[in-house]
Design goal:
The structure is a single chain. The chain is mainly beta and 126 residues long. The chain has one domain (6-125): Beta Barrel (Elongation Factor Tu (Ef-tu), domain 3), CATH 2.40.30. Helix content is 10%, strand content 55%. A seven-stranded antiparallel beta sheet has the order 2-1-5-6-7-4-3, covered by helices on one side. The radius of gyration is 18 Å and the shape is elongated.
Length: 126
């Protein structure tokens, strides 16, 4: 079994790499539409609208241009262009809105930020 770590994962915001990623999750969803006809005894579905989200935690380094761009989007509500490159070299590209930006710190620890993104428009993978 292959083991992968964050060195196998990259995240960019508006073409700028975001440093200090601790963990991240990308979720892609497809809604289903019920197209069952009267008289059928089993439900039938077709694919509907697709959407996605991303979330994660990072070390807060405002000196990092990627972290600064993510924070600026959180504060302004601006749409950002995101690219996630997974360990398989699969690239997920989407525009997103930062829906949550939550800095936190504990005694004898570094400042971290939890973030959440809502994808908007077309999501592509290659």
């Amino acid at each position: 079994m292959a083991v992968h770590n964050t060195s196998d994962f990259t995240f960019t915001v508006d073409s700028t790499a975001v440093a200090g990623i601790v963990d991240a999750t990308v979720t892609l969803n497809t809604e289903t539409v019920d197209v069952t006809e009267l008289g059928n005894t089993a439900r039938t579905y077709v694919a509907g609208i697709t959407n996605g989200t991303a979330s994660g935690n990072l070390y807060y380094d405002i000196g990092d241009a990627g972290v600064a761009a993510l924070q600026a989007a959180a504060l302004s509500g601006a749409e950002i262009a995101c690219v996630f490159t997974l360990y398989t070299s699969t690239t997920i590209t989407a525009n997103a809105i930062v829906t949550s930006w939550t800095p936190s710190v504990a005694i004898a620890d570094v400042v971290r930020v939890a973030f959440e993104l809502q994808f908007t428009g077309t999501v592509s993978d290659a």
